Amino acid sequence: MEKENRFWQIVFLSLPMAVFVILIIWPLTSSFYYSFTNWNGFNSDYQYVGFDNFIKILTDKLFYQAAINTSIWMVAAIFLPSLFGLVLALLIDSSVPGGSIFKSIFYLPICLSAVVVGQTWVWIYQPDWGLMNTVIGFIAQEKFNYAWLAKPDTALGSVILAWSWQQTGLSMVIYLAGLTSISEDLIEVCEIEGASTWQRIRLVIFPLLTPATVVVIALSVINSLKGFDILYIMTGGGPFNSSDTLAMHMYNESFKKYLMGYGSAISVVLFLIALTIIRIYFKQLKKVDEIYG
Amino acid sequence: MYKIKIRNLIGAVLVGQTALFGAQAFAETKTEVTISHYFTGELGLGGLKEIFSEFEKESGLTVKDSPIGHEDYKAGILVRAAGHNLPDVISYWAGARTQFIIDSKSLRPIDGMWAKNNLDNVIAKSVADGATLYDGKRYLVPFGYHYAGMFYNTSVLESVGVTSTPKTWEEFLTLCATLKSNGIDPIALGSKNRWPAQFWFDYLLLRTAGADYRADLMNGTAAYDDPEVVKAMSMWKDLYDAGYFVENSNANTWTDASDKVMRGDAAMTLMGTWITGYWNGQGMKPGEDYEFFPFPTIDASIPDAVVGPIDGLVISADAENVEGAEELLNFMVSNTEAQAKWANIQGALSANVNVDQSNYTSVMQHALATINAADTFAFNYDLSTPPPVAEVGLSMFAEFMDDPSKMDAILERVAGDAASAFKN
Amino acid sequence: MADIQLPHGTGAPSAKPFNPWPVVIFIILSILAVLFLAPTVGVLFSSIKTTKEIAFGRLWDFPTSVYWGNFADILSNPSVQGYFVNTLLITVPATVISITLGILNGYVFAKLPFRGSGILFLVIISGMFFPPQVILIPLFRLFNGLHLIDTLWSVIFIHIAMGIPICTLLMRNFFATVPNALREAAILEGASEWQVLTKIALPLSLPALAVLVTLQFTWIWNDFLWPLIFIQSDEKRTVMLGIVNLKGQYSVAWGVQGALSLLASLPTLIVFLFFQKYFIKGMTMGAVKG
Fold first, then answer.
1. How far is A72 from chain C (nearest CA, A)?
2. ipTM, 2 decimals?
3. Inter-chain contact B40–C248, Cβ cutoff 8 Å?
4. Is the pTM of the predicted complex or chain greater than 0.90?
């Protein structure tokens, strides 16, 4: 029996693990290797430069800017869609008429790609005739032509808004699924016990939604790491690098300045940051597991 | 079509690379030349396709082209070069960018083909050596070249009663003030993709500090916080502070800015001659609806210089069909009909001395006369300085256009950034 | 369910006067829905307007006439047809294979655990959280060495690999809910693990497959980064690269870009609508249990 299990373990795992090791683990390790070289992407005669690239990171102002932007991006891109999604799910779950139509409308943006979403929101933010400025101009009754994406103060925030618009639907669907699984009996008990709506949400629904939140957060993290696409389309990290994230910065250094070695060093830092996030996530996951089995 | 593609894919995986190499060995007479270029819609793609089909008729070869948008092209072509994955022929900007990919051994010299077709007698001397010769070898044929000038909407200038274009800086400032007081934005600039702003830097520096100083700055012997650079940037800043630039230039592309001038919302834009190709395509008439004047003189003691890029064609080091590629390069530059056609459609100047200049529009003849009268023809900023430095500088221009009041801090920082970019 | 309305007062249900809350919520949702639809409507408008209309700033005006030229342009453009074929040739195999590999992984981690399998599982799913850019450069070099740059294979392979973590996670969670007794009984009757997997575990896990098909198809179809780096020549471009590149093929391409955007979004929409019921069920049953 043991032997037979071992046989099937090997048969089942060998292919997926081979792919995973060759295409994920191996490149990950070689990123570490290149980060200690001055490879420019073309020449094979690059040198080992020790910690030079990492020392350079310490003095790279664009790196700091990108690191701050990445933190803002990660927090906002995880928090905002999750929160909006939860609110929408609670509203729709109140058996409002037309619930399934609303659900479809809010889910629709998920089916669109970052490229399409980015392009559309560029039109929304267009300073002269974009929807945003037209509406603001209409309300304020005077011409308004602020360039949302071309100003360093608002470029990143504007992209985050577009991103949240797109991602909200996914967390809404998951929260809705979570809400349906909460037993109706439990809700009825609450009513009989005379709990107020807020009490009911806070004390019963929220805790029971924890597993759904775990999934929402996981998917949000995965998706927000894919945020490169929408940034590339909407601002390209601009204006003048003000909306660069670490991923964007790495792309620019590697593929526009041809400093592949330095780009790899940025990747390594990015990897270490991701590792921290993973650790936090699994810690929370374990807690949840202990409580909810 | 779908089926064939799947079969190709399966075939490729089953037979693998060996078969591909084998096939190459057998295919002695190759009939296909692959080319990648950045001449997309607004830059004359339609005309280029016609020229390719002429070449196909004449040579019996087929041209397989992949146009890629200008901005993606810059990164994309280098990625392909890194992968030894370049097509036979690529279009490229003469100057520092070409030098950069030659340094990375991605290009193939064309001395043999140059001599065989006697290109010395075909290509204008003024363009030939600066653009085609790198490390003592020929690498590039100039397919067309451009000149950056102040293009304006004639009816807008007439509407404010201006009959003669400014020659000096004072006259230029007067023109701007007149336009402004008539409620017209004097200068349109679309710096979203950064590069359109570079011509301002180029000309202000050339007109105040001269071509020699500029060359020093481009090769790293001068610094961005030198008084020369500060002076040029301050003059740029004064224009901005006076409200002479359209708002939100960082939100617009060069075609957005051209549209503003075309519609008459703005009066002029400092742009390369390819704008004539774009405007002609939009139905504007050269000489009647638009014209240009050379960037005004600031210091009469400094020799006149003009700025522009040269679009070249180069052969990749890994070219599979070298003979076909050489044939294509020769055709593209030597065939006077193709050159004339391209000059007309794209709004380029031909580097071929045999091209009849009377084919040019009046505006292009004006441009040619301006270039010939100038003491120096310089490549524009991002073709004069190595690409990593150009990245720093182009971002600087966009940052400056966002808030010129931070000029001193920007220059101080860029001086350091540029110096370290030179070291890489 | 119908009589549960939110929020609910503390009063006795029988003495219920007119409850304004459903109306308020309906109005709030309607306003939000309009806001949510606006960007999508923008794409729709752009696709049926002429470039000139858009260039003169009339994108957001309600269309008075419909211009079909953008769609005609797109549909008659042979490169665009190629973009769709390429994207399909990437998305379908990458989706199917990544899910298959996830099934194999998930089954072992759920039903055939071994010493260290817990750690291995964690290593694999941590792959979900890495920004793909981290491995961009080495992958480029690897694929380059294998002459896979500028082929669809490079994009297929990377999507298979990048899909393994999420597919493994979901399949393991789902298989964990399949009672062990079922498997043991089948094994006692002489079934192999392969048969248990295909005949018992998989049929019970269809909702999870629906979730994965929806997610993977959407992600891969919409992906932009990998084709941007790995694909260079026009005839191998995906739809998303195509949309961005249309900018270059016409002088100003808003209308055609809008039209292509709309067409490019249809497949993911269809996949979602098709799997919607199972998708939500899958999310409730397996995925949500963490």
1. 16
2. 0.81
3. yes
4. no
